[in-house]
Design goal:
The complex is a heterotrimer of chains A (293), B (302) and C (440). Chain B is built from 13 helices and two strands, in the order ααββααααααααααα. With 302 residues, chain B is mainly alpha-helical. In chain C, α2 links the parallel β1 and β2. In chain C, α2 runs antiparallel to α12, α7 packs across α15 (402-413) and α11 crosses α12. Classes of the chains: A mainly alpha (293), B mainly alpha (302), C alpha+beta (440).
């Protein structure tokens, strides 16, 4: 371009550079460094990997809690992510087929995403799953005796999984858009060849949108590993710690308890786990993701 | 009727049936999705709120609504207004949205429309940080903001917006990688011809961005702004960590405290909840024209 | 667009400039934080307004908060140095979390502690420094709902022993099915009930002077079996999974009078009173049930809460004077004491008690808090006379340590583990975790 000063891009990029250095790189490194220290009062001493050892030791209560939180978080992720993907894809598929009132449905399914993350609704969720709450009242109408959702580990986990899956709207919108971009010609050709709708879905639709499935899977994975508000406000760690997810434990230890070093160690382990799974999914993607460009 | 006609009729019936079932499933799903929201509206008018499945209130009462904006024993003997908590929330949400949208837009513009050394590296870093969990940043940033040198800037400040500085400071520096990513993808779908034509007419970079491209960018800008607004308005862990005096608590922190007790019935709780989400609903529907059903979603394609 | 850019940069600049002049530290402003529900909050604000009227040179910024999350917030703010000047604390927090680093020695405020019993402030004293001003003492006391018992033809005043209670449970559940002599108790309440029961049998405090668990596995199993007895005889609900309301006072089973009683600190009983019909005039203070009629055993007590003063107040004489005036006002000013009433319990300060007793129009001496307070003091003093000290150990309520005994109890209450397993779990971890908690 004529008359462009060389420094302009760098100047405009300045804020991002500051942001990256101050808000991403510095905390990233600092977090690891902090995990190698222990603090008593105003003195911090270098302890190497002692914090990590404490977390994985079975003889300390903290270690026990950490293991439990890991387990609980895994359970949450492995139920929530597939459910979100499946439900949002199916609903998006139905909506993509030009139904009457598709605009209304899109909004209807997206509303929970907008509102569902709000504290007010999360609190409502607790009242819904109470023993005399909405869910049990509904079950009573069809003759099922009330379930103690918040009183049993499975039920409590179910309630927070349900909360997240209820908010599948945003994922659905992304799938909806991807579905729209699958060329009609492919479907037409398949119909001429006599393929059933189901076969078309499995052999045309899914392969064509695998990049989006990958994107959604990774984004949801990263997000669900860090779930916090639901367990905090609905189940408060759940009956017998069955919903005490990692982020909650980190909050209790670091921010409420004041032990930033141990909290950093826990955050780093969470980070490594998320990175590991993300990498695994990306690695596996070459076997199932089909890029059309 | 001939065999062929019968078969065509049968096929049509099957098709309509399938269509009907599909419709039924979708309607049922939508009903299940929306029913909790419908129910909370009804329950806020009901004195026996948690005792019925149906959303039509049995014992109609307005008390939850009449007392929804205030809570006795809050801040003074008479209590203070929920609107105050709402204002507190807006004090960090609004800067976050404004600065966040602006800074990420500029960053994406530079990356997609300008040439400079290290562009690939910057792009890689953005994708990399996209997938990084926030948890690993939170503790050191907390230590930073609450350290002796930094905390006087914002702690207990009476200047509007400043008391919540840690919650929106990052947005000034385009830290929201997802927004940058969305903008980048969208910029890529805009042909360079538009830019070229403007340069031919002697426009500089800024003019191109704000006068030529902006009309095309409006949907995605509104989308990003809306998403930022929703995320920040609903944030709980952020305000929780940087919690200040009670009068400065935002909605996220006030609502859990106004639980059931001797002066708050279920109707009160639900009415207050509805008041708090009403802002979200208003903003959402206002921005919806730009957001749902436009090509902004194509920006998010992988 | 240029205009917008200019505006934004001006905004940022001015904000940063202003920010440096942001907060004021005025030494005549007292920041006061407490926890409570609406009643206590309203009363406290009224007292604050009165204080500002009487002492116009001072201002008080009051910050109320619900109990839930108060401790975490306080911890968070103490670490950042942004805590209030005067704040309500639980007695054990002085040890377990903050210690001498954060609280000021109130002796430096020259408050008159002579009106309190001699040993009142010992539990609040660390290394010779008194780290909190005792507001009141408290113990867990049973309160029974007369109407539930009357409906089954019983008189609450006849229930003196555990046997009586179990019999009542049987009667109530057969005459009025769906109702219980007590109802639902959470792990914290069951813990203290069980330990009280065991202390009556063994004469031992749950934690001994060596900071170890004083009960044997066999004794714990006895305790758990006792709880099972209560659950099998209509005293307690059979499983906590069927009632997941964690908040006692608003539990619909309590407010609809299906639950016949509650075990609660005498300082916290008003919340339960307020949610009952008839303003809770049906509640009867039943003290602590005994093994045999006429005994006076099994009462644990502690300082219920204290006013702690932030260490930063030491730095300013004006501030110290302000805080001293405020604390004296809150505890001994006749009008303030009347306004605040017995909602934070009954103070052991002789002057304060005199004011409360003289306020005949409020009838404090017949309140549930007062009656509970008397029972706590009577039983505890009797126990001291026979050489039993059931003062609650400072780390008993430590929030990570308490999970060691409350978790197995909760599992037991949810019918997920049996008595043996619960007792084993407690024994396995009690001593090691208590030690770890005490070392900070």
């Amino acid at each position: 371009m004529v008359g462009e000063k060389k420094w302009v891009p760098y100047a405009l990029l300045g804020p991002w550079i500051v942001g990256f250095l101050l808000f991403k790189l510095y905390p990233f490194i600092s977090s690891f460094v902090m995990s190698l220290f222990q603090t008593r009062g105003r003195n911090s001493t270098f302890v190497g990997f002692a914090n990590f050892e404490l977390l994985f030791s079975s003889s300390s209560y903290v270690g026990e809690q950490f293991m439990n939180s890991l387990k609980v978080t895994f359970i949450y992720v492995f139920f929530t992510v597939p459910l979100i993907l499946i439900v949002s894809l199916l609903i998006a598929y139905v909506l993509a087929k030009k139904i009457k009132g598709v605009g209304f449905f899109r909004t209807a399914f997206y509303m929970p995403t907008v509102l569902g993350a709000n504290i007010a609704i999360i609190i409502l969720w607790r009242y819904i799953f109470e023993f005399n709450g909405l869910i049990n009242q509904g079950l009573a109408l069809i003759g099922i005796s009330p379930v103690s959702w918040l009183g049993t580990p499975g039920g409590a986990m179910g309630s927070i999984v349900a909360l997240r899956v209820w908010q599948f709207g945003s994922t659905m919108l992304i799938f909806l858009n991807a579905l729209k971009n699958v060329p009609e010609s492919l479907y037409e050709a398949a119909t001429i060849d006599g393929a059933s709708k189901t076969k078309q879905f499995l052999s045309i639709t899914i392969p064509m949108i695998t990049p989006i499935i990958l994107f959604n899977a990774v984004m949801r994975l990263v997000e669900t590993f860090q779930v916090f508000t639901g367990p905090m406000l609905i189940t408060n760690g759940g009956p017998e710690d069955s919903t005490r997810v990692l982020n909650m434990l980190i909050y209790e230890i670091a921010f409420a308890g004041g032990d930033l070093n141990l909290g950093s160690a826990m955050s780093w382990i969470l980070f490594l786990i998320i990175m590991l799974f993300t990498l695994l999914i990306f690695r596996s993607s070459k076997y199932w993701v089909h890029y059309s460009d | 009727m001939t065999e062929a006609q019968k078969r065509i009729q049968a096929d049509k019936l099957k098709k309509n049936l399938k269509q009907g079932i599909k419709y039924l499933i979708i309607v049922a799903a939508a009903f299940i999705m929306l029913y909790p929201l419908l129910w909370i509206v009804g329950a806020s008018f009901s004195a026996s709120a948690n005792e019925s499945f149906w959303f039509i209130p049995k014992d109609f009462t307005l008390i939850g609504w009449k007392e929804s904006l205030t809570a006795p024993g809050w801040g003074s003997a008479q209590g203070y207004s929920l609107l105050r908590a709402l204002w507190n929330t807006l004090q960090y949400t609004i800067p976050h949205v404004l600065f966040g949208t602006f800074s990420t837009l500029i960053t994406a513009y530079v990356i997609t429309r300008m040439h400079f050394k290290g562009k690939k590296l910057v792009f890689a870093l953005i994708i990399g940080t996209l997938l990084m969990p926030n948890t690993v940043f939170r503790i050191p940033l907390y230590a930073f903001w609450t350290s002796g040198a930094i905390s006087p800037i914002w702690e207990n400040s009476n200047v509007p917006f400043m008391a919540y500085f840690p919650l929106w400071a990052g947005s000034v520096f385009a830290v929201n990688s997802f927004s940058v990513f969305m903008f980048i993808q969208f910029f890529r779908t805009i042909p360079r011809d538009l830019d070229e034509a403007a340069y031919m007419d002697g426009a500089n970079k800024f003019q191109v961005l704000f006068y030529v491209l902006m009309p095309v960018l409006k949907p995605i800008v509104m989308t990003v702004a809306l998403l930022l607004f929703i995320a920040e308005f609903n944030d709980y862990q952020g305000p929780l960590i940087y919690q200040g005096a009670t009068k400065s608590l935002p909605l996220s922190l006030v609502l859990p405290q106004l639980g059931l007790d001797s002066t708050n019935t279920y109707a009160h709780v639900y009415a207050r909840s509805i008041v708090s989400v009403s802002v979200l609903i208003i903003i959402f529907f206002a921005a919806q024209r730009y957001f749902v059903g436009n090509d902004a979603d194509s920006a998010i394609k992988g | 667009m240029k205009k917008t850019l200019l505006f934004i940069s001006l905004l940022i600049t001015s904000l940063i400039l202003f920010a440096c002049n942001g907060s004021s530290t005025d030494d005549t402003v007292i920041k006061f934080a407490w926890w409570g529900t609406s009643d206590r909050n309203i009363a406290t604000y009224q007292a604050i307004e009165l204080f500002e009227e009487k002492y116009p040179e001072y201002t008080v910024e009051g910050e109320q908060s619900p109990w839930n999350g108060y401790q975490q917030t306080l911890n968070n703010r103490l670490n950042r140095g942004t805590e209030a000047d005067v704040f309500q604390v639980n007695y054990n927090w002085i040890y377990s979390m903050y210690g001498e680093d954060y609280f000021m020695d109130i002796n430096e405020l020259d408050l008159d502690l002579s009106k309190y019993p001699v040993n009142e402030h010992n539990p609040l004293t660390v290394n010779g420094k008194v780290l909190g001003l005792s507001i009141s003492e408290t113990g867990y006391v049973f309160y029974l709902n007369k109407s539930v018992y009357q409906a089954a033809g019983l008189d609450v005043e006849d229930i003196k022993t555990w046997e009586d209670l179990i019999e009542a449970g049987n009667t109530i559940s057969s005459v009025t099915p769906g109702k219980y002599a007590l109802g639902r108790m959470d792990a914290q309440q069951v813990a203290i009930m069980m330990f009280s029961y065991l202390s009556q049998i063994t004469g031992k405090n749950v934690i001994n002077e060596d900071n170890e668990l004083n009960f044997t596995q066999a004794e714990l199993i006895t305790g758990f079996n006792f709880i099972s007895d209560l659950r099998n005889n209509g005293v307690l609900i059979s499983s906590n999974a069927t009632d997941t309301h964690i908040d006692g006072p608003t539990n619909p089973n309590w407010t609809s009078e299906k639950y016949g009683g509650v075990l609660q600190w005498n300082t916290a009983i008003s919340e339960y009173q307020n949610t009952l019909p008839n303003g809770g005039t049906n509640l009867y203070m039943a003290g602590m049930f005994q093994q045999e009629e006429g005994e006076q055993l099994g009462m644990y007590k502690k300082v219920s809460m204290a006013y702690a003063v932030s260490k930063r107040v030491e730095e300013s004489d004006t501030k110290k004077e302000a805080v001293k005036t405020f604390l004296e006002f809150m505890t001994t000013d006749p009008e303030a004491v009347r306004i605040l009433g017995v909602d934070r319990g009954v103070s052991n300060n002789a002057d304060t008690q005199a004011i409360l007793t003289a306020a005949t129009e409020n009838d404090f001496v017949n309140s549930l808090e007062w009656k509970g307070h008397q029972v706590v003091q009577t039983l505890f003093n009797y126990q001291l006379s026979i050489d039993q000290d059931l003062y609650i150990h400072p780390y008993y309520e430590h929030n990570t340590f308490r999970a060691i005994y409350e978790s197995p109890i909760e599992s037991f209450l949810l019918n997920n583990i049996n008595a043996n397993e619960a007792a084993t779990r407690i024994i396995n971890r009690f001593n090691s975790e208590l030690k770890r908690a005490m070392e900070g």
